[in-house]
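hiii so my PI (J.) wants the whole complex modelled not just the main chain, which honestly fair. so below is everything: two entries, each one labled with what it is. i double checked the lines twice but i was tired so who knows lol
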Amino acid sequence: MSKTKGLNCRSRYRIMSGDLIALGPGKVDLLESIDQEGSISQAARQSHLSYRRAWDMVDTMNRCFKKPLVISATGGKGGGGAELTPLGKKVITIYREMESKASQATQQEWNSLKKYLTL
Amino acid sequence: MSKTKGLNCRSRYRIMSGDLIALGPGKVDLLESIDQEGSISQAARQSHLSYRRAWDMVDTMNRCFKKPLVISATGGKGGGGAELTPLGKKVITIYREMESKASQATQQEWNSLKKYLTL
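here's the output for the full assembly
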């Protein structure tokens, strides 16, 4: 239970498709984990999510996009695996770029606010 | 219980001071309400917050900034009121500017994502 020190500015982008969260920070982290681990269950463990929760998040993303972001294989060696589609990888890149551009664009405001904050 | 229609991209900026949320979308909305209503209790009602919750949010903001954002008077006609300090008003402006600049800066990415989303 470490305490966060100092000041920081966090931005969270949430893409809504109707009432569904098509994409948000947790889902993008999960996509990156699946890409690294090659498996939804291992990605879930790494992201401290239940398998069920991770699976639901993947299912929501796949339904919100015109093509799936993640393809999972059932059976086979090690009980099947999962991998990102080209669209899955592209979506990560676009989302991270969004965060990075937003952070750059708001640097001046963040510097102004910092002057007024204690700590 | 209205359903949100269509696609949208929401960004939330959260300013952390250690483990405290110095500023976020809910707190900035509350500041705007206090500015309009001239009272924490009326602002709380408008923002669907309990008085206690609104008061705690104001208290956290006031402690996170070097000078208070809200000054409240006790007693007097109508049981006292509350108003924003010049810093309180400035902080709203900076935060809204941050949101607007972030939104402009990420327009291209948002347009790219939209192409891949259903609905």
